[in-house]
Amino acid sequence: MAVERPGALALFSGGLDSILACRVIMAQGVAVKAVKFVTPFFCDELLTREDEHRRETRAQFGIDVILRDLSEPYLKMLRRPVYGYGKNFNPCLDCKILIAATARAMLAEIGASFIISGEVVGQRPMSQRLDALRVVERDSGCDGLLLRPLSAGRLPETIPERQGVVDRERLPKFSGRNRTPQIELAAALGITGYPSPAGGCILTDPNKAGRIRRFYEENPEVRADDIRLLLVGRQFRLPAGSWLVLGRDQRENERLLALSRDGDLVLRMSDWPGPVAVLRNFACGGDLELAAGLIRRFSKKGEGRSRGRVLLEVGGAEKSGEVAGEREIPDEAWQDWLR
Ligand code: SF4
After folding, report:
1. Which H or E run includes 8?
2. Whose CA is closest to 7, among 27, 34, 30?
3. Dist. CA 283–CA 240, nearest whole Å
4. How many whole angstroms from 320 Cα to the centroid of ligand 1?
5. How far away, in angstroms, is 10 Cα from ligand 1 center?
6. Is 161 helix (H, G, I), strand (E, B) or coil?
7. Helix (H, G, I), strand (E, B), or coil: what is residue 116?
8. d(CA 12, CA 238)
9. Which residues sit with their C-beta closer than 6 Å to ligand 1?
């Protein structure tokens, strides 16, 4: 009876390097299962279409990928990362350690015996220096188990290489920021239509990362659905402390409705086009009137704007609650409430 070779679990970002890492290992006859970790800071939207993403990745790149929601441990780690933050609120080393450690814990479940990733020595200043790669391997409990196929020839031998599961001599020796070798390898393997390298991580975006950092400073407990809400629409902190979010278009209005949770107040104009609003951590009635005034301010211009009724919904069921007043908040008043 043929003995099945131990397989690999791939840390899969979806970028070219992770695709290549999978493909060069698969080319050696090793079974590869890929996992894409998602958090509110990266790839979160895939959770709503996991099957589709899986089908697309298999059809386009021949890679079998599953998603894992890493939100909870990630949110905790982000408060106090051991190795600190990068330029913005990005805890790259701790992020990689958490991802590798989680993958390590999944090996038995997946039936794999080692982990691969698309990291390339020297490609990124903070997290892909030689010493940083070593720290990730050590702190994640992946000693000898984390193979970086694209730079294998420049790194110490791992267990699957020593055991002959993977032939080290057939793996690349990429290093540095030059992307040409990866592009040439992709062409040689017939890989096309891969995404261009772009920062998909919100924690590296100066504006959004700053907003998230402030939210952490203000709140001892941070939940994934708070972060999701924080990344949509116009954000206000009203004078009594309520958190108001207004949709800027139809897509954001729908997103806000999907993100509202028990305890939130949902507001919108009943007879005039305007934003959907979610009011969270509702503090007092004064904030409710201000929220209604802001909804009027950001509603479609026209004679119905100031006269339009603002309705209040609680818990998703529309109640007849109409917020009093016809006031529209003037622009000079709300600038200081922006979050
Ligand atoms: S950029 Fe974001 S996803 Fe990438 S390693 Fe850094 S924190 Fe993690």
Report:
1. strand 7-11
2. 30
3. 6
4. 45
5. 17
6. helix
7. strand
8. 41
9. 42, 90-92, 95-96, 127, 201, 203-204
Q: How high is the pLDDT of residue 275? A: 95
List CB contacts of 236: < 8 A, sequence separation 6 or more.
243, 244, 245, 246, 294, 334, 337, 338, 339
Atom of ligand 1 nearest to the CA of 90: 7
Which amino acid residue places its CA nearest to atom 2 of ligand 1?
A: 201
Ligand 1 atom closest to residue 204's alpha carbon, by position in its atom list = 1
Identify which of 24, 23, 25, 20 has the alpha carbon closest to the alpha carbon of residue 8: 25
Supply the mean pLDDT for the chain. Answer: 92
If we measure between CA atoms, which residue out of 194, 210, 82, 89 comes closest to residue 140? 82
Give the ligand 1 atom nearest the CA of 202: 2
312 C-alpha to center of ligand 1: Å?
39
Q: How far apart are CA 324 and CA 310, in angstroms?
A: 8
- Residue 224: name the closest of 38, 39, 37 by CA: 39
Q: Which atom of ligand 1 is nearest to the CA of 93?
A: 5
The reported pTM is 0.91
Beta strands 277-280 and 265-269, pairing class? antiparallel
pLDDT tens by residue, 240-252: 999 999 999 999 9
CB 11 within 8 A of CB 140: no
219 or 308: whose pLDDT is higher?
Answer: 219
Q: Which of 5-19, 29-43, 78-92, 318-332 has the lowest mean pLDDT?
A: 318-332
**The tokens 């791939």 sit on which residue?**
10
The single-letter DSSP state of residue 211 is H
Q: Of the candidates 194, 144, 229, which has an alpha carbon nearest to the alpha carbon of residue 21? A: 194
CB-based contact 61:22 (threshold 8 Å): yes
Task: Give the Cα separation of 61 and 14 in Å (integer).
Answer: 10
DSSP state at residue 262: T
